[in-house]
Amino acid sequence: MENKITIRDVAEKAGVSISSVHIALNGKKGVSEETRQHICEVAKELGYHPNEYASSLKRKHQNILIMLPGEEGNNKYFFPPMWQGIHDYIKGHYANLGFAELPFADIESDRQRAAEKAHQLIKEERIDGILTAGHVDLLPVHDQDILRTRHIPVVYVNSEPDTKDYLCCVESYYDAIGRTMAELITGHIEPYGSIFLLAGNPRYKSHSRIVDGFDAYLNENNITNMVYKDYSWSIDNANYVHILREVMRPDIAACAAVYSQGTILLGKALEESGKTDLFAVGSDLSSETVDRVRRKVFNNVIQKNPYAQGYLGIRILAEYLVSGKEPDAQQIYVGADVVFRSNLSLYEKADYGQMFFY
Fold it and tell me: If you placed Cys at 134, which of 147, 159, 164, 251 could pair as Cys (CB 3.0 to 4.6 Å)?
């Protein structure tokens, strides 16, 4: 089977943006006549027919599989707003779209259960698009091969996988988050104070890119504070004991966590050690973390906006399936925000799960 030509292929061949291709092929203003003609020639050369493809999509009832970490257990510290964003969008979904939700817990047996269920749906040709998380991509290689062969689009949220065979990824701009954390911390401590950083799982791009941004900021600004890093990424007693021991180092002046579960462990360690005078920056708003900001355990929290990730992720996939509309880029970044005690009421009044920055 020949690979389907996409609008991204046309944009790359023509050397223009995807939005320019949209404008040119739909006869809208925004590009020069010379560019429009060039784009049309490239589209003809490649055999790209957007209107015919979109019409065929509209006539077909299609099903979207939503396979993400659920809202229970340790997932509750990050994923509930993402699910809320998804549900808020699909409340008004198109009549010819169906949605199959497959949440899974943060344990191997449940991940395996979800992978087996997804495999069965794919095998039975009951899925036309998939929304999932790049950091816990449960689809084995043979299922991914089937998706490519059938041209089934996949949208990732939170972070992209190693493969480039996907329609789009919606995530936060993690490098900037790491730099922001570093600037907040180093602006409040002396050059001789050490920093304790809960760096998470180095295999998760949503963790490692924040750490990279943190390190880059220090290097670019010739900041020489010692940084101790902890690479645990789950809530268990052994990890907590280690974090508590690090927090109690006499040279520690500030601390930060790049992920939600680490923020929970760090907040608990700061309280138990009595070192709530340390400058502390957390990640992701949960009810526990909101309370710790209010009680001055955390000075700031970086909110990565999972609500917008979920909302935009399902919207992009639905629009692609229904109308053939492709995303403007393969990477879509949602805005993150720095939470202070002074602006905490903004999140409480608006429901911190529903803040939407894009």
Answer: 159
CA–CA separation, 279 and 281 (whole Å): 7
* Same domain membership, residue 35 and residue 79: no
- 28-37, 114-123, 127-136, 226-235: least confident range: 28-37
Domain residues for the domain of 329 are: 58-171+308-335
Rounded CA gap, 42 and 15, in Å?
10
* Residues contacting residue 76 through CB under 8 Å, at least 6 positions apart: 286
Q: Which tokens belong to 109? A: 């047996």
Residue 3: per-residue pLDDT: 62
The predicted model gives 119-125 an average pLDDT of 90
pTM of the model: 0.82
Handedness of CA 239, 245, 248, 253 (dihedral sign): negative
- Tell me whether residue 122 is exposed, middle or buried, using C-beta atoms within 10 angstroms of its C-beta: 0 to 12, 13 to 18, 19 or more: buried
User: What gap in Å lies between CA 316 and CA 325, rounded to an integer?
Assistant: 8
Q: Give the span between the Cα atoms of 181 and 258, in whole angstroms.
A: 9
Instruction: Looking at the structure, tell me whether residues 38 and 68 fall in a common domain.
Output: no
Q: Does residue 230 form part of some domain?
A: yes
Predicted confidence at residue 82, as pLDDT, reads: 96
Using only C-alpha atoms, the chain has a radius of gyration, in whole angstroms, of 23
SS3 168: strand
